[in-house]
Amino acid sequence: MKEFHCILQTKGGIGKSVAAAWLAQYLLNQGRAILAIECDQSNRTLSRYQRLQTERLDLLDKDQQIDRRRFDALMERLVDDTEPTVIMDNGQASFVPLTQYLVECDALSLLEEAGRQSYVHCVVTGGQLGPSTLSGLEQILAAFVDSAHVVVWRNGHFGPIDDEAYQKIVEASGAELREPVHLDRWSKPFEDDVQEMLQRFLTFEEAIHSPDVGLMTRQRLTMVQRRLFGEIQFAVSMEPLEAAHA
């Protein structure tokens, strides 16, 4: 079964595009053909990774509502069996109209009937933006818990996540979430290497095999990649968690 991965959240600047880029890299690392789509009208991040060959798609019209013709054309492509695994990165402005449109049209059920499983990825943070991202998670679970796998990316770079509030939201939704992906802070040498890679819009493979990168930097990036890709595998695997951990 082919897949549709949609990255959604109510806030910008919390790591959505980083999550989309690393998810795309994991899928490529697994030998999967991908189509990366960037729908964030205010920021260009995913499309700056040359290796990912990302398409730009403006889903919103001048009134900041979903452009029906563009969205319907996208759905036609997703239903088409010739399209590979699709990763769609969305901006803050499209969160509400896109969520409403997907629910009103029962779009994800249509994709499942066509043989494409849907995943909705939500980044949750701590710190000042924490309550807003938890609210976004609550809205995502309410909208998609019955039609998609919801994958949480826990970004600890903004401060500790309110685990009590997080658990209340998940329990109230009745969702059985898969393992989250952790975007934790590493020690300074690791963080410096990752940040330099992100600033240059390089994939892990490009950075690790770059002739400009030293031996220990390659070692640290390889360690980060291995841990990150392992967590993504648990989060998006179609097999039961017990089997994944066996």
Task: Give a description of the structure.
By secondary structure, the protein is an alpha/beta fold. Helix content is 46%, strand content 15%. It is built from ten helices and seven strands. A seven-stranded parallel sheet has the order 3-2-4-1-5-6-7, with helices on both faces. Helix 5 runs parallel beside helix 6 and helix 7 crosses helix 9. The radius of gyration is 18 Å and the shape is globular.
List low-confidence stretches: 240-246
The end-to-end distance, rounded to whole angstroms, is 23 Å
**Helical percentage:** 40-55%
Examine the coordinates and then state which fold CATH places here, giving the name of the CATH topology.
Rossmann fold
Number of structural domains: 1
* Spatial arrangement of strands, main beta sheet: 3-2-4-1-5-6-7
Q: What would CATH call the homologous superfamily?
A: P-loop containing nucleotide triphosphate hydrolases
Give the H and E element order: EHEEHEHHEHEHEHHHH
Task: Give the class from helix and strand content and strand pairing.
Answer: alpha/beta
Corresponding CATH architecture:
3-Layer(aba) Sandwich
Largest sheet: number of strands, sense, barrel closure: 7 strands, parallel
Give the oligomer, counting copies of the same chain as homo and different chains as hetero.
Answer: single chain
Rg result: 18 Å
- Strand elements, count: 7
Strand-residue proportion = 15-25%
**What is the overall pLDDT average?**
91
Count of separate DSSP helical elements: 10
**CATH class value:** Alpha Beta
Sum up the overall morphology in one term.
Answer: globular
